[in-house]
UniProtKB/TrEMBL annotation:
WD repeat feature ranges: 79-121, 129-171, 172-213
Protein name: Coronin
UniProt feature coiled coil, ranges: 445-472
Gene from which the chain derives: Coro2b
Keyword annotations of the record: Coiled coil, Repeat, WD repeat
């Protein structure tokens, strides 16, 4: 036992603790969605908190300024353009006011939230993206390239969208079942996926090549996360004894996990969150109230258990505040926004390193990715890789993003990716369009009926004439 004590003692994160916000700093009265899809239904940035809500007909989500805590008015305006349930929402990492959503209606939509939040319901997206033939369960923004969005559908395909032109530009078609999770490495040159077909894959997204594949017979993988620049992946899943477990993998060799670790016998999905700045891993169980946290190392034992934040109330999902939205004066290194469906409550939980000093703690806040993209969409698509543009949080980083989302002008109505026209089997857009189609078809039907009845009359006339000819006395 002595052998690990000294190395354990040296960790500056061994006393990190979770601090729950006061009641008045929570968000109350929110009709959180009852959908059982395994996503977080929540996305947060330094300006806004977005939550998918329960709604009759169509899908909607709330966007609330992050400082507007307390009870939310039941008539608070919503983003409500989708025709089916909203399954995932994600904020653009480089533009605080741009959020993407995907839905059972097969579309991905991009919304621009006005400064200060919504004053009325928003039904018009700045961009509607159609290319999937079935519902879209998952979206992720590229971590370094501006305006690149990945979407994964129940058609087992991942589409890469270039929002500068508003079109899908690549299709990754190597999965044989529903994709459960996507995670990028630091520069976004690789994407790891977990899939219902029990395989873990490392994919080169621009070529669609699968570089590594693990057949997870003993460890059924649910979620995967890249561990920053360590060239390692961490997965959460279920062992063959149906216990929850995590596994650590070398991204260049997925033949065997480096380690497998049993967590407990509960059944809810384990959501992993990794903080590359502190090398801390957080594991939060869906349906239980605990968040365990660990420190990841490059040497054995790789994974050092630190502590566990406990709460009796079950979490449905968790949003995570980006680094530049944290309170560095309180030594806050991570912040969750926990969804309690039963109470309609969202509760911030701050992970804090206890320090007495008043000065900025350089060692727990290294340079971190800020809000400036490292490259444009076309640069990334052409094959360039760049690491994220780093910033210091020392001056209480509040540099506003000067990027503006330009809505592309879309002309052509066929989208050919990998030789397939993705718009061949796309459903109509909106109720209005459905009505337009309906009226168009009715007009066409009327026209055809008219034509038919005209022909009918002509036929009758001809028949009469023929009869008359037959019955007339034969003339010599």
């Amino acid at each position: 036992q002595m052998s690990w004590c000294p190395q354990y003692r040296s960790s500056k994160f061994r006393n990190v603790y979770g601090k729950v916000a006061n009641r008045e700093q929570c968000f109350e009265g929110i009709p959180i969605t009852k959908n059982v899809h395994d996503n977080h239904f929540c996305a947060v940035n330094a300006k806004f908190l977005a939550i998918v809500t329960e709604s009759a007909g169509g899908g909607s989500f709330l966007v609330i300024p992050v400082e507007q805590t307390g009870r939310i008015d039941p008539h608070y305006p919503k983003v409500c353009g989708h025709q089916g349930n909203v399954l995932d929402i994600k904020w653009n990492p480089f533009m605080d006011n741009i959020i993407a959503s995907c839905s059972e209606d097969t579309s991905v939509r991009i919304w621009e939230i006005p400064e200060g939040g919504l004053k009325r319901n928003m039904a018009e997206a700045v961009l509607e993206l159609y290319g999937h033939s079935r519902r879209v369960g998952l979206i992720e923004w590229h971590p370094t390239g501006n305006n690149i969005l990945f979407s994964a559908g129940y058609d087992y395909k991942i589409l890469i969208w270039n929002l500068d032109i508003g079109e899908p530009v690549k299709m990754i078609d190597c999965h044989s079942d529903v994709i459960l999770c996507m995670s990028f490495n630091t520069d976004g040159s690789l994407v790891a996926t977990s899939c219902k077909d029990k395989k873990l894959r490392v994919i080169e997204p621009r070529s669609g090549r699968v570089l590594q594949e693990a057949n997870c017979k003993n460890h059924r993988v649910n979620r995967v996360v890249f561990l920053g620049n360590m060239k390692r992946l961490l997965t959460t899943g279920v062992s063959r004894w149906n216990t929850r477990q995590i596994a650590l993998w070398d991204q260049e060799d997925l033949s065997m996990p480096m380690i497998e670790e049993e967590i407990d016998g509960l059944s809810g999905l384990l959501f992993p969150f990794y903080d590359a700045d502190t090398h801390m891993l957080y594991l939060a169980g869906k349906g239980d109230g605990n968040i365990r946290y660990y420190e990841m190392g490059t040497e054995k034992p790789y994974l050092q258990y630190l502590l566990e934040f406990r709460s009796p109330a079950p979490q449905k999902g968790l949003g995570v505040m980006p680094k530049h939205g944290l309170d560095v004066s309180a030594c806050e290194v991570f912040r969750f926004y926990k969804l309690f469906t039963l109470k309609g409550l969202i509760e911030p939980i701050s992970m804090i390193v206890p320090r007495r000093s008043e000065t900025y703690q350089e060692d727990i806040y290294p340079m971190t990715p800020g809000m400036e993209p490292a490259l444009s969409a076309s640069e990334w698509l052409s094959g360039i890789n760049r690491d994220p543009v780093l910033v210091s949080l020392k001056e209480g980083y509040k540099k506003p993003s000067n990027l503006v989302f330009k809505v592309p002008v879309k002309e052509k109505r066929s989208v050919v990716v990998n030789g397939i026209d993705l718009l061949e089997n796309v459903p109509p857009r909106t109720e209005n369009e459905l009505l337009r189609v309906f009226f168009r078809q009715q007009d066409e039907l009327r026209r055809l009926k008219d034509e038919l009845s005209q022909k009918d009359i002509k036929i009758r006339q001809l028949e009469l004439e023929l009869n008359n000819l037959k019955n007339s006395p034969k003339t010599m």
